[in-house]
Design goal:
Blueprint: E1 2-4, H1 24-29, E2 31-33, E3 42-44, E4 47-48, E5 59-61, E6 64-68, H2 71-76, E7 79-84, E8 88-93, E9 119-120, E10 125-127, E11 130-131, E12 142-144, E13 147-151, H3 154-160, E14 164-168, E15 172-176, H4 182-195, E16 200-202, E17 206-209, E18 212-213, E19 221-225, E20 232-235, E21 239-245, E22 248-253, E23 259-264, E24 271-272, E25 278-284, E26 287-292, E27 309-314, E28 321-324, E29 329-335, E30 338-343, E31 350-355, E32 362-365, E33 368-374, E34 377-382, E35 386-391, E36 397-401, E37 407-414, E38 417-423, E39 433-437, E40 444-447, E41 451-457, E42 460-467, E43 470-477
Parallel strand pairs: 3-15, 8-10
Antiparallel strand pairs: 1-2, 3-4, 5-6, 6-13, 7-8, 9-12, 10-11, 12-13, 14-15, 16-17, 17-19, 18-43, 19-20, 21-22, 22-23, 23-24, 25-26, 26-27, 27-28, 29-30, 30-31, 31-32, 33-34, 34-35, 35-36, 37-38, 38-39, 39-40, 41-42, 42-43
């Protein structure tokens, strides 16, 4: 379907490709073409894109996916870009440049169905020094919201840009311009496991877990292979917030006054570090970040002798210091060079962040009851029942999912999906595990399991389920129809 455009500007938004002015005569003579927004998920360099709220979403035209050549995208995907009024737009593949893809999102956008009009590019375009005869291409280059869009055909993705592109009906469309950084995926998996209580940790070879968490005992910290075979008991501690870092494990022994324990991954050299009454623990490089509470989670009899708040010490137990007088805090989350945490009255907590040394402490958002962070966005539960996402600085806040059920929590993330439990707690309540895409679409039930926490070890999901006062770990492969003990 073709229509005439009356007038449009051609200066890109700040920080994007500046295309220069287009005359009214050129604009009037340009025929608009109808494009649509993809309904399938899209991943670029392991970053799941939010096309619903993106200023520059991927497009569909003639059944082919079109990719926006914004400054953020081209910089992350190894393309150098130049523009001048005489020669037009030039893209050149560069070597050794690759990274995660920053996204420009807005709460005001709801991209779905048929988009507004795009137009064929009215200026010259060259790729790797070769002119593109766009008017005579089967899939011409397009201009949408003043950004040039390229068709993701074999010619451009593989031959010119050197990208790996793939499609399947479950995962959708993916583009990879460089090898996957395994370390980034491990950091995210570790953070998500700790944000759910750290009853399980995993590295490239082993799983470290507390199979049954209860206050009475017996307790055990167990190591197994990723497939669950060859279990080895490492200690008799009630271990939570298990951190696997280098050759060591760090965790809280809740049955021993909330003490921090350091132990080798084979169970040797168990060492008690000088901190008690600890509520949460994160290992990050040479530092341990932890919270102290007025009472230990598993016992009202063992109180911390230090004021509640956020502390850190080195992994050898030296250099311990309180970072700031935060008072009672929870939901510690270390991300990049900042610490995020919740503080405030139960059910009315605020989300705060500070630098790793305790400076620049500031409030990010109000009414936050649970949260996780991935790909530079904070996904959080507001008032215990709505899922939203907010930028790290708090400037952009986007609603994703609203519901009337009385509870929502246990947030986690995997491959473009936000996992959560929603429903009613209590003996007769229903609290299934559900998930929704990070753009707020595609909500579905994973299984009926009443999880109290969600963990990941490679591609396998583990969840803790409450039973007669104990939190028992179960394994679930996402491709299976039901969880298995």
């Amino acid at each position: 379907m073709l229509r005439k455009l009356n007038l449009w500007t051609a200066a890109a938004a700040a920080g994007l490709l500046m295309l220069g002015p287009i005359t009214n005569a050129e604009a009037a003579a340009t025929e608009a073409v109808e494009v649509a927004f993809p309904a399938f998920p899209v991943t670029v360099n392991e970053t799941a894109l939010d096309g619903v709220h993106s200023l520059y979403p991927l497009l569909l035209h003639k059944g082919v996916t079109y990719f926006p050549m914004t400054w953020n995208y081209t910089s992350a995907l190894g393309l150098s870009v130049s523009w001048n009024a005489e020669d037009g737009l030039s893209l050149t593949k560069t070597e050794g440049i690759c990274g995660p893809v920053p996204q420009t999102l807005s709460a005001e956008l709801k991209n779905s169905g048929r988009a507004a009009d795009a137009v064929p590019v009215p200026f010259p375009v060259t790729v790797n020094g070769k002119a593109v005869d766009s008017p005579n291409e089967t899939y011409p280059l397009l201009l949408y919201r003043n950004i040039t869009y390229f068709p993701m055909t074999w010619r451009f993705t593989k031959e010119e840009f050197g990208w790996q592109a793939a499609w399947d009906p479950v995962s959708g469309y993916s583009i990879q311009s460089c090898p996957v950084e395994a370390a980034a995926g491990k950091r995210l998996q570790t953070a998500l496991n700790l944000s759910n209580g750290g009853q399980l940790a995993a590295d490239e070879k082993w799983i470290y877990k507390n199979p049954v968490r209860n206050s009475e005992g017996p307790h055990s910290l167990v190591r197994t292979e990723l497939n669950g075979e060859h279990p080895l008991k490492l200690s008799d501690d009630l271990a939570m917030y298990i951190n696997a870092s280098g050759e060591w494990l760090y965790y809280i022994a809740y049955d021993q006054s909330g003490t921090i324990v350091k132990i080798r991954k084979d169970g040797t050299n168990r060492t008690i570090l000088p901190a008690t009454g600890v509520g949460e623990l994160w290992a990050d490089g040479e530092w341990l970040y932890y919270t102290k509470r007025t009472q230990q989670p598993e016992s009202r009899e063992n109180a911390s002798s230090s004021p509640p708040g956020i502390y850190r010490m080195k992994t050898d137990g030296t250099g311990g210091v309180q970072l700031n007088p935060s008072g009672e805090v929870k939901s510690l989350y270390v991300y990049s060079d900042r610490i995020f945490y919740l503080k405030g009255e139960q059910g009315k907590e605020g989300l705060y962040s500070m630098k790793l040394d305790g400076s620049d402490d500031r409030k990010v958002q109000e009414r936050v009851t649970d949260f996780i962070i991935t790909e530079d966005w904070i996904y959080y539960v507001r008032d215990g029942k709505d899922i939203r996402k907010i930028s790290l600085d708090g400037s952009i806040d986007i609603p994703l999912l609203e519901q009337e059920k009385p509870y929502m929590g246990r947030l986690s993330y995997k491959d473009g999906w936000i996992y959560f439990a929603a429903g009613a707690t209590g003996i007769h309540g229903s609290l299934p595990l559900e998930r929704v895409r990070l753009d707020g679409t595609g909500r579905e039930t994973v299984f009926e399991a009443r999880p109290t926490a969600i963990y990941w070890a490679g591609e396998a999901m583990y969840f803790a389920q409450w039973s007669l006062g104990s939190h028992v770990l179960y394994e679930h492969q996402l491709k299976e129809p039901a969880p298995k003990p």
